[in-house]
Write a structure and sequence with these properties.
Large ribosomal subunit protein bL36; Ribosomal_L36_bact; ribosomal protein; 40 residues
Length: 40
């Protein structure tokens, strides 16, 4: 999982979901599990 400043480029990938958990923003992708990121 990467910690990035901007998750905009990751959320545009096919299959991506943006989820808020415990005040942090996560990107999870079931199609391509390498595209996981956290912001905040």
């Amino acid at each position: 999982m990467k910690v990035v400043n901007s998750i905009r480029s990751l959320k545009n990938q096919p299959g991506s979901q943006v989820v808020r958990r415990r005040g942090r923003i996560y990107v999870i992708n079931k199609l391509n599990p390498r595209l996981k990121a956290r912001q905040g």
